[in-house]
Amino acid sequence: MTDAAESTGTGGNGHFYRYVLLVWLLVSAVLAIPMWDRMTTGSLGDPDNYMRMVQVRDWLNGQAWSDVTQYRMNPPSGGDLHWSRLVDMPIAATILALRPLVGQSMAELAALLAVPALLCLALMMVMGRLLRDIAGREIALLMLALLPGCLLVGVQFAPMRVDHHGWQLLMAACALLAWTRPGALPVIACALACAFWMHVSIEGLPYAVLFAGLYALAYVLNGDRRVHIFMATICGGTGLFVLATRGPRLFLETHCDAISAPYVAALLIAGIMLFAVDRLLRPATRLLRLVPLLVAGGCAATAVSLIAPACLAGPFAGLDPLARDYWYYSVREGLPFWKQSGPFATLMVLAPMPGVIAAGVAAYSARNSPRAMIALGMALAALFSWSLGMVVMRATGVAQLYALPGMAALIAILATKREKFRPRIVWSLSMAGAFLLSTAIPAYGLGNALFPAQDSRAKDRREDLCVTHIAGPVLRSLGDELLFAPIDMGPLILYHTDLSIVAAGYHRNSAAMAIVIRAFTARPDEARDMVMATPARHLLLCPRAPEARNYLKSAPHGLAAALARGDVPDWLAPDARLQEPGARLYRILR
After folding, report:
1. What is the DSSP string of 507-526?
2. Rounded Cα–Cα distance for residues 159 and 30 (Å)
3. Distance (Å, rounded) from C-alpha 382 to C-alpha 306?
4. pLDDT at 7
5. Residue 579 pairs with which residues in a beta bridge?
6. pLDDT of residue 454
7. What sign does the dihedral 109-111-116-121 (CA atoms) show?
8. What number of H helices and E strands is found in the chain?
9. How far is Cα 150 from Cα 56, in angstroms, rounded to an integer?
10. Rounded to whole angstroms, how far apart are CA atoms 559 and 582?
């Protein structure tokens, strides 16, 4: 704890959390303002939000707890998803509780509003405790109030956001807070948070390695053997989560994009080898304590390479090349900063940077104090998450979150130096600037100033009415038939209608995705056989959507481009009920 934290007082947990509750209400209102149109129209924004609600509906309608296959995608076998039912639970519970009172639609709307808000409250409670320990109550509350300004954090808790990214950020906060606490129980909490994080998304694996590394560092530097507790707990927790949601069969399956046999084996072998070599050698020096860690890490990497060598290339190594080129490389959240637009690239690189630098300075300042290991761990966590966030955009949210403790330490130091600033306005401006740098607003604003809008993406969103037409009566009138439709519109179609689709943007179904992409980019006479190979009776095109623009740009002589120009091949017939600039429906003439 810093001197500033001690001076402001950290007692009175009850009073502090009441203030956090008030700040949460303010933050919730701020997050809701830009989402008002979506809240009133029922738009969920991101396709994953639609698919999550479709999955919850299917579960409530009788689909097995352990079966997360989407059977209206790529029927009859269905599309396999790697999502966890644990994320579905609070959504389903809210719907079940309210459905008898207000009906299905209002119950779903309540879940779409309540679940992200409650996750946000949980995050603020956890981060509030961490920031209060570092900088005191007042600074912690002010930083929590600025949470919406951490753009890639706040957006994950906005109304209608029921994807798993909010859970990932909550687990990130829980793991970091637990790391800062002494004793065995916090180690167990940290490991369970990492295990849940990995279970929700394999994106948690690098952070599990991070915290294992932090406990390993403490073991090397001062002989702290809590790393054994961490490894034992993360192995047990991972196994329990798998058994509870998918059953023992998943231990025999190999998936690079989710916790399965290769990762479970690696964790188990690493834990066993670490304990065995440590017990055997009883190393008394720092150099010797590296041996168990190197053996454990080497055995874990060997296990993955032997069981599933393809997983060493990443979770998306098995993607069909066509799906990779047309879909994956177009998903902004999975791309590094050098493939982003200027404002987003600037945000990814610069937004967490002040917090990383401040955390490094705090770690150096505390090098001789009892909290030296904690300060070093938080600095390394900030640096690691910042580095990962520059490579994968969706990891920038964690980077912004982990930058906050460093900024809190800096602000706490400034708070104690008030008398040294002359004139006093300099101190006030310094404090205001530090709080502002705790958010992503300066970085994003600088990016917009340096890189003015170079495309018409916002205009295209206004003009793209495909989403509106999907929610309209025409597609619902088609019943439960199979619709040959763009990949990105698949989740919306499943949510708003009873139709089935060939594919949507979920990488385990890349073969079906490739069918759709190949058909839309092939010449109309070649596309005919591809479309006819499916039992689809209608075909939908959204000419102004980003997906269609990619097809038109890369395949100007393809089916999508021909239909966009109004050149309809003889095996398709325009459906007069839906021939709008943003959405066009065609009957497939068999």
Report:
1. GGGHHHHHHHHHHHHS-HHH
2. 11
3. 32
4. 42
5. 584
6. 52
7. positive
8. 29, 5
9. 29
10. 16
Q: 277 and 296 in contact (C-beta within 8 Å)?
A: yes
pTM of the model: 0.93
Neighbours of 480 (CB within 10 A): 10
Pair of tokens at residue 442: 């300066």
Tokens of 383: 């640096």
37-44 long-range CB contacts below 8 Å, 24 or more apart? 38/159, 38/160, 39/113, 39/159, 39/160, 42/109, 42/471, 43/160, 43/467, 44/112, 44/160, 44/162, 44/495
What's phi and psi for 584, nearest 5 deg? Answer: -135, 130
Tokens 């490991």 correspond to what residue? Answer: 191
The H or E element that residue 578 is part of is: strand 572-580
Helix (H, G, I), strand (E, B) or coil at 312: helix
Give the tokens for residue 182. Answer: 């002494």
CB of 225 closer than 8 Å to CB of 183: no
Q: Round to whole Å and give the CA distance between 283 and 438.
A: 42
Cα 468 to chain center, whole Å? 26
- The number of CA neighbours under 13 Å toward the Cβ of 226 is 24
Bond from prior residue into 423 cis (ω within 30 degrees of 0): yes
Q: Retrieve residue 468's tokens.
A: 């509106």
Where does 517-568 show beta strands of DSSP type E? 538-541
Query: Are 73 and 51 spatial neighbours (Cβ–Cβ below 8 Å)?
Result: no
Residue appearing with tokens 């997360």: 68
Give the tokens for residue 304: 């993955």
352 to 32, 121, 146, 235: CA distances (angstroms): 24, 22, 14, 31
Q: How many CB atoms lie within 10 A of CB 456?
A: 10
Helix, strand, coil % over all residues of the chain, rounded to 5: 70, 5, 25
- Residues 207, 208, 212: CA angle, nearest 5 degrees: 115
Mean pLDDT, the chain cut into blocks of 10 residues (590 residues total): 44 81 95 87 87 96 93 92 92 96 95 96 97 94 94 93 94 97 95 96 94 94 92 94 86 84 91 91 89 92 88 77 84 88 93 96 90 93 97 94 95 86 83 92 92 56 69 92 94 95 90 94 95 95 90 93 94 93 91
Kindly tell me the burial class for residue 507, based on how many C-beta atoms sit within 10 Å of its own C-beta (0-12, 13-18, 19 or more): buried
Neighbouring residues of 201: CB distance < 8 A, sequence distance ≥ 6: 164, 168
From residue 330, give the alpha-carbon distance in Å to each of 75, 263, 509, 551.
26, 28, 17, 12
- pLDDT at position 8 is 43
- Using an 8 Å Cβ cutoff, are 336 and 391 in contact? yes
Strand order across the beta sheet in which 482-484 lies: 500-501, 482-484, 538-541, 583-588, 572-580
